[in-house]
Amino acid sequence: MEADSAVPRLAILFIGSNAISSVGDWASRMALTFALLDSSNPGKLAVVTATREIAATLSVLPGAVIADRLHPKRLLIACNVLRVMSQVAVAAEFGFGGGKWYVLAVLVAVSGVGMGLSRPASTALIPVAFSGDHVQQMHALNGVGLNLVGVIDGALGALIYRNLGASIALCIDAASFLVAAVMVFSIPVRHVVAEHNGWGLRSVMDDIGKGWNEVCSRRWLVLMLGNASAYHMVAMPCLLVLGPTALNERGSGSAKWAIVLGADALGSIVGGLIASRIHSRAPMVAVCRLVLVSSGWLFALAFGLPVAGVAFFAFTAGIALNVAEPVWLGFIQHHIPEGMMARVSSFDWFVSLALSPIGFFLASRLQSDGGPERPLFLAGLVVVMANGLTMLVPEVRRQRGSETEVS
Fold first, then answer.
1. What is the pTM of this model?
2. Which residues pair with 280 in a beta bridge?
């Protein structure tokens, strides 16, 4: 880990590696989606997409063990190289093999493994590459980079596919992962690894258990992960499924939803910039308050506010969530041993990946059983109650951070 004078260069390498791979990832997703739709049916697209998500979910916890044992940097480089090979293979299947969906499902699952393995490793890399004073700032600026890229990702991916075709789009994705691997390789880090007793299944499961014990030994951490579970299983699916439905019932739903998502994206960028500059005296209480504020656009949709009102609350939600996430990650990385960081963060990732599909299924069922307004209201109520009650728990209120501008 280098001196503070090297932080800007390290930040460019870390944030740039994530942003570049994100651009390529969106290009490949667009290419895969539309190539399958053009040559097959939506059911096969669903199967191929599901294999990637399932593979990513199942890889998160083992990936955390590998990251803690080998070092997050080494695993991230390996994941990028794995995704280079998988995307080149997918491009070859489209170019020479006819794009058979069952072959694509296997190849995309390999890419999903790389994605799942990389999630906890990326989170754990920051505290071994940057000093404690810069951990929250790096999480915040990384979010800003990804959100800025996210504004153009979808359109750019579609443009590349339509003009260059699926194989070229997938080769661009492979190249982006290769560039990301080189950038991660260039980041100097502290060498912190966990001791282990071999690579057998029992040993790996024991290490996952140690990570869970680390979580359970902190009641405030268990409660905060419970809040995250509620948000990913209830709030986010209702927003993404029932939000567009609520606006569509009033006419021109797609245009209105684009405005709302644009406001959320702008708020996300503003929130990341704010989070890079502030600290909190009571970080966990601050996170609960910010997530509570983010429920505003659920209620705005539930009560049928005009699109300008919904966009305003989406903007505030974007700010709130993108201040909350770096504060949360920065705080836990000050309180979790470095050799345990990937495993502890993996439970957060696992919750979001595993529970989201359940939430989307429930949201679609609620949509079919009646209008979207009531479930949107109930989802907002779940967020308010979960975070409001958590703030009252003494262990949560006792957690203290450094200097403060948010409390």
1. 0.80
2. 406
* Residue-level pLDDT at 194: 61
Q: What integer best gives the mean pLDDT of the chain?
A: 83
Q: How would you class 371 by CB atoms within 10 Å of its CB: exposed for 0-12, middle for 13-18, buried for 19 or more?
A: middle
Residue position matching structure tokens 């258990």: 209
Instruction: Please give the torsion angle defined by the CA atoms of residues 329, 5, 79 and 136, in that order, rounded to the nearest 10 degrees.
Output: 10
Amino acid at 313: F
Residue that has been written with the tokens 């199942």 in this structure: 58
Phi, psi dihedral angles at 406 (to 5 degrees)? -125, 140
Task: Look at the block and give the residue holding tokens 């994941």.
Answer: 79
B/e letters for 332-362, b = 16+ CB within 10 Å, e = fewer, are bbeebebbbbbbbbbbbbbbbbbbbeebbeb
Closest C-alpha among 360, 245, 359 to residue 301? 245
Virtual torsion, Cα 49, 55, 58, 63, nearest 10 deg: -130
Amino acid at 154: G
Radius of gyration of the chain (CA): 21
Interatomic CA distance for residues 346 and 208, integer angstroms:
9
Query: Does an H or E element contain 163, and which?
Result: helix 132-164
CB atoms within 10 A of CB 308: 11
CA–chain centroid gap for 103, Å, is 27
Q: What does the alpha-carbon distance between residue 405 and residue 275 come to, in Å, rounded to a whole number?
A: 10
**Predicted local confidence at residue 166, as pLDDT:** 80
Q: Which residues of the chain have pLDDT under 70?
A: 1-7, 39-43, 132-133, 151, 153-155, 157-158, 192-197, 251-254, 367-370, 401-407
Comparing C-alpha atoms, which of 299, 342, 373 is closest to residue 61? 342
Residue 348 has which token pair? 């957060």
Q: What are φ and ψ of residue 393, in 5° steps? A: -75, 125
pLDDT at 28: 74
